[in-house]
């Protein structure tokens, strides 16, 4: 454990955090409903967890339908919708032409008409073709109608860099989309996240972007007993502390949460006790969990696959500066993808992407400041 002798003295008039932050941002954790009591954990892939979520919500609510390129007869480009066409038919699982602008607009119209569309993008890079419908229609209509019109639609698909697909297919849009009032943005990491967040998104009366990882679809994790219940959801806007620690707070989302946990275990042998926060939700952001953690540890590192400028980490640092500046023993470090279009050649791509060593060195840097 690091010494706390170098703690910056606190101002006597610092207001407790719960009174500083807008209460709308401080969503309280809710108990999971219908938790199984005797069910054992099962190991499945993230792809299978997403498939379970879609299957259960299609069965529960006849107003839910899935639409996108190759989602039906082909079982999905990444097989997330595998088996759903055979089970629910062509009125619930709908193949579209290669026209994101068209089927995104159709989905928003269907949501306004009382259904709950799940729009799959083969990649969120292609969602840019339909961005006007997402940002100027789905995100705005509830506000512009004075709350009279709901837009219960989900936009989902792979986001962030895979490998060797070039600059136009390797982008993380979490910061872009989370900057838009009216949208909710969630990013799952493991199977519980994938299932619970997608089910919550489908049930939400607001437009929700579910940003998945192409590289994470095949990852296998234990699905908890609670998550095996058909009524399991994860509240949107609530982060999870995946590992408790007292020296440094490591904050991330999506696939990089797994790398953060590996780094935390490595650093424990060096006497650095790392707390790992899985954000789960980028908008709304669980500021309360972040600030409570960094007030305890006095040091923080943010990790994201997107570009550093105007990124998710930049927003987190701004919140820390506003609400925990007097508690910090070192400047916050950011780990992000390189500030360049993603190279296609493998050698340069490896340099541009995040690796566990990048995270490890950033944590060591903040842990050693002020010693």
UniProtKB/TrEMBL annotation:
The molecular function terms of the Gene Ontology recorded here are: pyruvate dehydrogenase (acetyl-transferring) activity
Residue stretches making up the Transketolase-like pyrimidine-binding domain: 44-219
Query: Known InterPro entries for this protein?
Result: PDHB_mito-type, THDP-binding, Transketo_C/PFOR_II, Transketolase-like_Pyr-bd, Transketolase_C
- What reaction does this catalyse? N(6)-[(R)-lipoyl]-L-lysyl-[protein] + pyruvate + H(+) = N(6)-[(R)-S(8)-acetyldihydrolipoyl]-L-lysyl-[protein] + CO2
Q: What is its EC number?
A: 1.2.4.1
Enzyme class, first EC level, given as a word: oxidoreductase
Give any single GO term for biological process: pyruvate decarboxylation to acetyl-CoA
What's the cofactor? thiamine diphosphate
User: What UniProt keywords apply to this chain's record, in alphabetical order?
Assistant: Oxidoreductase, Pyruvate, Thiamine pyrophosphate
Q: Which Gene3D superfamilies match?
A: 3.40.50.920, 3.40.50.970
Tell me the domain of life.
Eukaryota
Q: What does this protein do?
A: The pyruvate dehydrogenase complex catalyzes the overall conversion of pyruvate to acetyl-CoA and CO2.
What name does this protein carry?
A: Pyruvate dehydrogenase E1 component subunit beta
What is the scientific name of the source organism? Planoprotostelium fungivorum
The record lists the lineage as: Eukaryota, Amoebozoa, Evosea, Variosea, Cavosteliida
């Amino acid at each position: 454990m690091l010494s706390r002798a170098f703690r910056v003295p606190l101002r006597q008039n610092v207001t407790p955090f719960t009174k500083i932050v807008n209460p709308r941002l401080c969503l309280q954790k809710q108990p999971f409903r219908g938790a199984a009591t005797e069910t054992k954990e099962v190991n499945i892939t993230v792809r299978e967890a997403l498939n379970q979520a879609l299957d259960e919500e299609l069965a529960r609510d006849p107003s839910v339908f899935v639409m996108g390129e190759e989602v039906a007869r082909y079982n999905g480009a990444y097989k997330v919708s595998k088996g759903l066409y055979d089970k629910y038919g062509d009125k619930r699982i709908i193949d579209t032409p290669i026209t994101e602008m068209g089927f995104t607009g159709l989905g928003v119209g269907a949501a306004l008409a009382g259904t709950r569309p799940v729009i799959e993008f083969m990649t969120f890079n292609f969602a840019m073709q339909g961005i006007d419908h997402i940002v100027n229609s789905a995100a705005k209509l509830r506000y512009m109608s004075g709350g009279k019109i709901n837009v219960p639609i989900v936009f989902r698909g792979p986001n962030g860099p895979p490998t060797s697909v070039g600059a136009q297919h390797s982008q993380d849009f979490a910061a872009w989309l989370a900057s838009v009032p009216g949208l909710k943005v969630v990013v799952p990491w493991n199977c519980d996240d994938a299932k619970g967040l997608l089910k919550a998104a489908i049930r939400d009366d607001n437009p929700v972007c579910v940003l998945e990882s192409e590289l994470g679809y095949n990852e296998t994790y234990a699905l908890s007993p609670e998550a095996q219940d058909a009524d399991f959801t994860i509240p949107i806007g609530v982060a999870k502390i995946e590992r408790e620690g007292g020296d440094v707070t490591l904050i991330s989302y999506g696939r990089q949460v797994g790398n953060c946990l590996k780094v935390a275990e490595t650093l424990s042998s060096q006497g650095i006790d790392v707390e790992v926060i899985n954000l789960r939700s980028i908008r709304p952001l669980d500021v309360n969990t972040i600030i409570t953690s960094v007030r305890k540890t006095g040091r923080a590192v943010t990790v994201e696959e997107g570009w550093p400028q105007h990124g998710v980490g930049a927003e987190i640092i701004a919140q820390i500066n506003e609400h925990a500046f007097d508690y910090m023993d070192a400047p916050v470090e950011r780990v992000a993808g390189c500030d360049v279009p993603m190279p296609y050649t493998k050698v340069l791509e490896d340099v541009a992407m995040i690796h566990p060593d990048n995270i490890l060195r950033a944590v060591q840097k903040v842990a050693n400041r002020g010693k």
